């Protein structure tokens, strides 16, 4: 049995979903994968907030206590770039593998983090950072390794897709946005969603995996000012393709023909169509945002880390490295 002790940083939509999902799936993970995953600490800002189903004794508001405590893996689901970035770096410096859903930080500082992890033989799982439950990261990293990607096009923001689908049904923009927030889809600052920034961050991550080439040009437009024509299908489309010397990225609302595969993608669903030189087109689709769907991607990374690590050895190595930092 491989035991993994997890320091969970953040207990909001994704973190709370992760606690619930792990308690539901823990026995299956033991039996199916021989992985015993357990949360050892949960870092929160407000200790007195009600969190149904979250064991109170695991909560701490001390980042150092959470990060330097007895854990093998640090799961960062706080979001934002400032403290989250510092916590990820500290986790890597103290020899812990990291799982993060933080597309903003990865889009900005990903290369530096991956270099730091590689130097120490550590793993950064980031499946949850793009397209929620849809395993697009693994698909690009592993399943499609045998082909050269020529282009990718998709819907990578669940909030915008949810809003546009509601607007198709006659709802006003503001009401649809409120509804997306109530469903736990939107970012803490929803302007990141509606102005296309969240989609651009995700597209940067996908493009790096797909092309590993310099980004030459980026165009980003959101859905704040869209006007929907009756009967038309509008989607916030993210596209990356090769241009001389690198890749070009575009995020913009586009009217799609009703028979376009992305026109059928509704609500908080995401989908990505990848075109490869040998394989032609491959499409992947599923829930791109929300508590449990995103938590499922986080948990899959935790399981992957546990399966990479020798039983028992890693927790001790992490504790030794952490002791050196004190
Ligand atoms: N706000 C994001 C979205 C959450 O709506 O897609 C998932 O990354």
Features:
about 40% helix, 12 strands, binds L-homoserine, 11 helices
Which runs of at least 5 residues are low in confidence (pLDDT < 50)? Answer: none
Query: How would you write the strand order of the largest sheet?
Result: 3-2-1-4-5-6
Write down the Rg: 20 Å
Decide which structural class fits the backbone.
alpha/beta
Count the helices. How many?
11
Tell me the series of helices and strands, N- to C-terminal.
EHEEHEHEHEHEHHHHEEEEEHH
Total DSSP E strands: 12
Main sheet summary: 6 strands, parallel
Mean pLDDT: 94
Report the portion of residues in β strands.
15-25%
SSE blueprint and pairings:
Elements: E1 2-9, H1 13-33, E2 35-43, E3 59-60, H2 63-68, E4 73-76, H3 82-93, E5 97-100, H4 103-119, E6 124-125, H5 136-143, E7 149-155, H6 158-168, H7 173-182, H8 191-194, H9 197-211, E8 215-220, E9 233-243, E10 246-256, E11 269-276, E12 280-287, H10 291-308, H11 313-325
Parallel strand pairs: 1-2, 1-4, 2-3, 4-5, 5-6, 8-10
Antiparallel strand pairs: 7-9, 7-11, 9-10, 11-12
The structure holds L-homoserine.
Would you summarize the structure shown here?
The chain is built from 11 helices and 12 strands. The protein has 326 residues and is of the alpha/beta class. Helix 6 (158-168) packs across helix 7 (173-182).
Question: What does this entry look like structurally?
Answer:
The protein is of the alpha/beta class and 326 residues long. It contains eleven helices and twelve strands. The model has no long low-confidence stretch (mean pLDDT 94). Helix content is 41%, strand content 25%. Bound molecules: L-homoserine (HSE). The site of L-homoserine has 11 residues, from helix 6.
């Amino acid at each position: 049995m491989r035991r993994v002790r997890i320091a969970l940083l953040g207990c909001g939509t994704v973190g709370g979903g992760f606690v619930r999902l792990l308690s539901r799936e823990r026995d299956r993970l033991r039996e199916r994968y021989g992985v015993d995953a357990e949360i050892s600490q949960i870092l929160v800002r407000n200790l007195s907030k009600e969190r149904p189903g979250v064991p109170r004794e695991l909560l701490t508001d001390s980042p150092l206590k959470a990060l330097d405590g007895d854990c093998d893996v640090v799961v960062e689901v706080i979001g934002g770039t400032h403290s989250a970035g510092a916590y990820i770096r500290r986790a890597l410096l103290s020899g812990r593998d990291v799982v993060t859903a933080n597309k903003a930080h990865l889009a900005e500082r990903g290369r530096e983090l991956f270099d730091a992890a590689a130097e120490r033989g550590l793993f950064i799982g980031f499946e949850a950072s793009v397209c929620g439950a849809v395993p697009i990261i693994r698909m690009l990293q592993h399943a499609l390794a045998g082909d050269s990607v020529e282009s990718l096009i998709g819907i990578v923001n669940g909030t915008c897709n949810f809003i546009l689908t509601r607007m198709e049904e006659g709802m006003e923009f503001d009401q649809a946005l409120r509804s997306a927030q109530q469903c736990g889809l939107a970012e803490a600052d929803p302007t990141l969603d509606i102005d296309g920034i969240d989609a651009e961050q995700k597209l940067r991550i996908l493009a790096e995996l797909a092309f590993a080439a310099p980004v030459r040009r980026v165009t980003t437009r959101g859905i704040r000012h869209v006007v929907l024509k009756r009967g038309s299908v509008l989607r916030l489309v993210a596209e990356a393709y090769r241009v001389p010397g690198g890749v070009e990225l575009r995020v913009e609302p586009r009217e799609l023909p009703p028979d376009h595969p992305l026109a059928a993608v509704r609500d908080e669903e995401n989908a990505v169509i990848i075109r490869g030189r040998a394989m032609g087109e491959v499409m992947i689709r599923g829930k791109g945002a929300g508590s449990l769907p995103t938590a499922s991607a986080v948990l899959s990374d935790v399981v992957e880390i546990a399966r990479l690590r020798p039983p028992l050895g890693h927790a001790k190595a992490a504790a030794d490295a952490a002791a050196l930092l004190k």
